[in-house]
Amino acid sequence: MGKESGFQAKLIVELKELFPGSVILKNDPNYIQGFPDLTILFEEKWAVLECKKSEDASSQPNQDYYVDKLSKMSYAKFIHPDNKEEVLGELQQAFRPRGSARLSRR
Asked: How many domains are there within the chain?
């Protein structure tokens, strides 16, 4: 099991490739406790992801709250190596323009 920071760094690279022209922000954990790690801005849509090193990694205070709250506004999810492909597929669906075909993975 690798470190969360290594997973997050590789994920950022993959997100930039998957969503060209996107803006990916690493959120300051000291600003709002529990706010997800990454914000992805793509065209007129946005999403947030909370990175975990594994499925059973513990959540910090307020993380569940913010992921739930933000998923009702747009797209928010916990992401870890075991669900990464599923989450990236959901993100493609969330970011696709209405009435258009699914985005290509590469």
From this structure: 1
